[in-house]
């Protein structure tokens, strides 16, 4: 590990100023991804600005929705009574990820901003446009079983790893930030992450030194009827090969409106408006669910080793919808 400077941010203003003043500075909270990447020389920040003491670790509710502080730990969020009751898809998604020990350390903002687990990104001897722009992408012709089939380009097929973000994008979550100049902005989570395009090294719309302070969840009445299903190689401590986050607004057996998102198969949190449109106004039947799954994966681009993910994601989505409607019945 290379030497680095450590400092504590005494306020959000001081923390953003400290990171902005040094091109190689980063925010540090739970560190469950950052420290791992520093150990293997994938990232080498010269300054860590510790934001753990900032007053951003509470969950509050008002007439507009639920407001989650950036430093709320994943375990705290998953087991919060309001989240479990009103947004079960979020609780289920968080509890399906990592391990208890990691969830006790990982923060809400850190989970959203976690880096890909692409083995070529994590191997400094491999070509990776995300880690070293312009170097190429060894994953495209390499062993790409775990890689993305949605939102890919010829420059990058790395999978975005967060289970939590699949649920958040389904729930119309909004990220609030503080910019280095003291101004704030609100960013729909769906717009926070960027597709790789020609610049896969740029993963979000955040500016250098821009600090996530909160994640807001609007009141959604039918979010109570939601579910997260994850398919992986082993039962715990494993990233998704494919996952589905779903929510349904029902009128008897008819679907008034639906929310669908996928995980483990895309380069960013992946909302599926095409599948939602297919489901709206139809009866909650296996045929409807299969039609929605076909629509959700219509744009998928398989590579040599990951083509199975397309059918797997379809089946995961159908199963998630089936389990949700059976639970409601």
Automatic annotation (TrEMBL):
Q: Which domain of life is it from?
A: Bacteria
The molecular function terms of the Gene Ontology recorded here are:
FAD binding; oxidoreductase activity
Domain FAD-binding PCMH-type per the UniProt entry, residue ranges: 1-222
> Which keywords describe this protein according to UniProt?
FAD, Flavoprotein
Please indicate if the UniProt record lists Acetylation as a keyword.
no
Q: Read off the InterPro entries from this record.
A: CO_DH_flav_C, CO_DH_flav_C_dom_sf, Diverse_Substr_Oxidored, FAD-bd_PCMH, FAD-bd_PCMH-like_sf, FAD-bd_PCMH_sub1, FAD-bd_PCMH_sub2, Mopterin_DH_FAD-bd
Q: What is the name attached to this protein's record?
A: FAD-binding PCMH-type domain-containing protein
Q: Keyword Flavoprotein, does the record have it?
A: yes
What SMART domains is this protein classified in? CO_deh_flav_C
